[in-house]
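hiii so my PI (J.) wants the whole complex modelled not just the main chain, which honestly fair. so below is everything: two entries, each one labled with what it is. i double checked the lines twice but i was tired so who knows lol
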Amino acid sequence: MTRVQIESMTKQFDGKPPATAVDDLDLDLEEGEFLVLLGPSGCGKTTTLRCLAGLESADTGRIAFGEQVVFDQERKVNLSPDKRSIGMVFQSYALWPHLTVRKNIGYPLKARKLRHGLADGWVEETARMLDCEALLDRYPGQLSGGQQQRVALARGIVARPDLVLFDEPLSNLDARLRELVRTELAELHGRLGFTALYVTHDQSEALALGTRMAIMRAGRIEQLGTPRHVFSAPASEYVAGFIGMANRLELNQSAGLWTLGSEPVAGSVSSSGLGSLVLRIRPDDLHLHLPGMAPPPGHACVAGVVAVAAFGGRHLDVVVTVDGQRLAAEVPIGPGTRDLEAGTAVTVSFDPACAATFTPDGALVPRPVDGQPPASVKVG
Amino acid sequence: MATITQAQASTAGPGFQRVRSIASSRHLAKIGPLALLGVLAYLVLQPLYRLQELALEDNARGYRTAFGSETFAETLGTTVVLALGSLVIAMVLGTTLAFWATRLPRRLGFLKVVPILPIVLPSAANIVAWAFLLSPKPGYLNVLLRKLPWWDHLQEGPVDIYSMPWIVIITGFSLTAFVYLFVSGGLRNINSELIEAAQASGSSSRRVFFTVTLPLLRPVLLYGGGVALLLGLGQFTGPLLLGRNSGVDVITTDMYRSVSQTPIDYAAAAALGSPLLIFGLAVVIMQKALLGDSARFVTHSGKSFRAQTRPSKGAAAGIATFGIVSTGLPLVALLIVALSPFWSGTIDTGSFSLDNFRKALDDNAIKAGISTSLTASILAVLIALPLGFLVANFLLRAKNRVLRPVLDFLVAVPLGIPAVIFGAGFLLTYTRPPLILYGTRWVIVLVYVTLMLPFTTRMQLSGLVSLGTGYVEASRVSGASALRTNLRIVLPLMRGTMASTAALMFVLLTHEFSASMLVRSSTTQVMGTVLYDYWSNGAYPLVAAIALIMSVVTAVGVGLAILVGGSDVLNKL
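here's the output for the full assembly
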């Protein structure tokens, strides 16, 4: 367990033109922190992790584990993976098929010459923590996917390394198992407090596991903060799109009137004074109203037509078109929404406070300071 | 110096020592591949260089003699006709058999190994057997054919195995197995959903074959055809055993004559090989350029090829017929001759005995040949296996833009250049300083290692590729050094691949004939060359016995391969 520092790390891959996977990245992991790197495929998150592991060599920059410099391009330091105090959990588990579970878990202890760990029963202890004690004498081929993943987790943490690296460890599990192992992992980290870097493209994993989370884009960190903060205040439109604000509303203002496409928008939208804006909003923050039903006060409203309404159990997944733009809404099933079907004319409303506001090129428009009501733009 | 180091160490702190140790280990990592490259370059290129050196001596006298002789044009023509003719036969037969193999009824699935058996039969034994069957007068099949009413007036024939067309046909038969291997490999790699998608889109089976399957197979057919063409150009065993007396000469047999019969002319022999050498190198270079990085070809998942139509009994019958003709008949002929006191067109079961086997196993020359074959093959396997492992590892993991393609090219060269040329090159390199190995087993071992480089590298490379990077990376991040990772993780997981690679190399080497003919000496013979000497002397029953003994040795090798590597070992070829 230690602090990990990455300073201005860059990594390019050969090609025509060369692809920059990590671009002048600075990142600090506090001692005992569980940091999640979130981003789409190709954003450089896995490359960052592999550079920390020593499986890839960065082109420039510096990486230090506590006092120990493991990579420094200027001083030509580049420790091989086995010389770094790490544990790693792979997406494919990578359990060696010719070794028993016991030998798989014990391997890092032997390789790192931690004889006292072997003698003190670290293997059994870790296996117990991960609920795979009964599997110790089996071979990986005899285990289910979930069991294999538990063994891989045990192997990653058994040697009590400075840093545990997780490379999308849950993405090969089915949805139910994924949630189960996710909570177990959170519990394990709470108990052991190891420093961890966790790479994923699944926002729910990032929100549930991270002490902090970093959203990456094209080799750089777009936003770094606690899950709660990122979730409520995305720093850019890219981040907003990535943490579930799936609806993108391009609004234009002319002569004091806001329009979405050619449809007028009623109610207060923004006080920024800009001529055009992009709003990002989550599907469950959109409300639908049949004709004759009044939207809640303070909501912005626009008229639309239902394109699809799909049953989702406790809710309906509805797609509404507003002048050709498609908006996704997740609405609870109730008296006002039961009769929604393709072709139904509805009013779409939302609370502007739930939306994040950006300029057309994706930069955040700061929210008005609390206590000062936004100057509203009324549409007749 | 020491003081400077100390001063730097004290200012740079503990990190400095680490920097130095890393620098030196990097040094080692650079020297290792270079040493490997040096060894391989010497093995592969020095013999070829020596040939050119000899041929260009004396103002290129070798070239003038070889290309100036009046028979050269005819020899070259015969070589090309033999190669192209056998290529056509092999392509048609091999592709047909591969398609039939996909349509075998489940119960008869084992038949799919039948077309590979001609590779497993020693080529010298196979050719000799065909002579027993189709030689104009006493050939068993000819005797049978002469019983037919329209041929009953003939004194000999109707087939003359010693004539050009039949040499082409027999060679085509032996190349069929290679084409079959490539095409069935290609078929296995076609995702069956592609075929099913075409069928579901309304294509008939015929249309699917021509619009989807065949275009997908094109690279495989091109590659397999290229390999078969190279093998056809380098054919030696057939023309030597069947064509010598009837005047059917190809480049390889001419080379052999130049180094073995008076007037011996090494320079001319060296020059004769050049057309094949240049063509072989061109094919290897072209293939590397077209296919690029061999590590790119990662085995892909997806459902493999399944029969597009219902299983066909006709397909099974076709494959069985091919098996009977290409393997069954020759084996029966060998058995009959080996059991008989002499070879004549009639079969007298009353005179059958095991005398020839007894004689063969008592004969000192034959015993020595068997022993040399076995020891040279085993030694060559023991050297080629780790060598191939190192090269495969380097090809897979290294990123060096110069070393890597050079190494990749070097190990592919022995596949493109006929074994006879390598034999000649080794003969002419190791009969003089710095390494005079001629007359010892070591020259045979070295030429065997060189010939096996493509096999040992390619098979282990594909083994490593299908292993993936995960296991190795997991070991490194667990704190294991590269050495420990190789010993504890890679080697155990590669055991099956390595065992089957070893067994297959053993099989190929125990019946190696072409290169052995050139590097043998009167005191150092292998099984194939002993067989050739007895064939030249007309001791046919003994020849048949030796051929069968060779086949048994090979069969034991194949059996071992299947035992350790699983039943699809032959498919890995």
